[in-house]
Amino acid sequence: MSELRKDYATNTWVEALSDSDGSSLADLLRESLRRLHQVVDDPDFNYYIHTAPTGTKEADSHWHLGITPHLPELAGFEHGTGIFINQVMPEDAASILRGDIRLTGPSNSR
């Protein structure tokens, strides 16, 4: 898994973001999706926001956003078990998304 990270201070809930931080988050999401499109040939994806439950003390939790691409390279194990195997080391994925490594192959030849 790869990360583009921005620290939004001590916000436990995403709805507590300032307008400025909300705009910054939109820019970060746009850049993340641009890189995903570039590296993985425009996959469908889900994104999700995990936020603290109502009533949680601010020091106990923080929110984060995740992006899960839908990749077509599923094999029998994934179909049979519903368990997905990550074939790329997190460090390699980070290098690819930073642009340090360029993927080559039929799915990236567009």
What does this 3D model show about the protein?
It is a single chain. The chain has helices spanning 19-40, 76-81, 90-98; strands spanning 44-50, 64-70. The chain has 110 residues and is α+β, with helices and mostly antiparallel strands. The protein has a single domain (14-108), classed as HIT family, subunit A (2-Layer Sandwich). It has a two-stranded antiparallel sheet. The longest helix has 22 residues, at 19-40. The radius of gyration is 17 Å and the shape is globular. 0% of the residues are buried.
In short:
The protein has 110 residues and is of the alpha+beta class. Helix content is 34%, strand content 13%.
Radius of gyration: 17 Å
How are strands sequenced across the largest beta sheet?
1-2
Quote the average pLDDT: 74
**Helix amount, in percent?**
25-40%
* Total number of domains: 1
Strand proportion: 5-15%
CATH homologous superfamily heading? HIT-like
Distance linking N and C termini: 24 Å
Structural class: alpha+beta
**Uncertain spans, ≥5 residues at pLDDT below 50?**
105-110
Annotation, overall tally of beta strands: 2
Q: Output the helix-strand order.
A: HEEHH
Shape: globular
In oligomeric terms, what are we looking at? Answer: single chain
State the CATH class: Alpha Beta
Q: Examine the coordinates and then state which fold CATH places here, giving the name of the CATH topology.
A: HIT family, subunit A
Major sheet: 2 strands, antiparallel
